[in-house]
Design goal:
9 helices
């Protein structure tokens, strides 16, 4: 018995201009909201002094460099792979790529953080690291797997053309939640590492 040919489903027209406008608007709001991070910096300098702020800023810059070594640009690569899978409608592949990418990056960054903390602890004096900076960097390195998870999740969201999350993660959480956590840490009495904990 002959099988009737099934006509191809009509392709859904995608308005790329509208998508770009929505993504640009969400990104602009996130950038504006993230500028409130300056409140955190101002409070650190005002409450704990410029020396503590300087130590925090140097530790943050070192953490940023170390995190690049941990991530190894996998967050950039996953955006491309997720976008290709979503373009073909292969959602199961997107999910598996996300799980593999997140597992790999979090494990990789946990190992990098452990090695970096060990180097700071055992070779800090030989490297002539300031003890306050070594302590601050060690505390901040504990957040490296979480930072990697954030970067990977952001990359996956961009590959899926979802940009609204940036308003909450980069805009609100990174500015307001960090500031509130800092104030709570100072209130509890953890003044030494309050910026790093935040």
């Amino acid at each position: 018995m002959p099988v009737a040919a099934v006509p191809n489903e009509p392709a859904v027209a995608v308005d790329h201009g509208r998508e770009l406008k929505q993504g640009a608007m969400a990104n602009a709001i996130a950038v504006l909201a993230s500028n409130f991070r300056g409140i955190f910096t101002f409070l650190v300098a005002r409450i704990l002094g410029p020396a503590v702020l300087g130590t925090y800023m140097v530790a943050w810059a070192a953490l940023d460099v170390i995190s690049r070594l941990g991530v190894l640009a996998c967050d950039v690569a996953i955006t491309t792979f997720i976008a290709r899978a979503e373009a073909t409608g292969d959602h199961s592949r997107s999910r598996s790529l996300f799980r593999i990418g997140v597992s790999l990056i979090v494990l990789q960054c946990a190992l990098v953080a452990a090695v970096a903390i060990a180097v700071i602890h055992f070779a800090g004096e030989k490297l002539r690291l300031d003890p306050e900076l070594a302590g601050a960097l060690s505390v901040m390195l504990c957040a490296l797997p979480g930072l990697a998870l954030y970067r990977m999740s952001t990359a996956v969201s961009r590959g899926m053309k979802v940009m609204r999350h940036d308003i909450f993660s980069r805009g609100l959480t990174d500015s307001f939640v960090t500031t509130l956590t800092f104030l709570a840490a100072v209130g509890v009495g953890w003044r030494t590492f309050a910026p790093e904990i935040a």
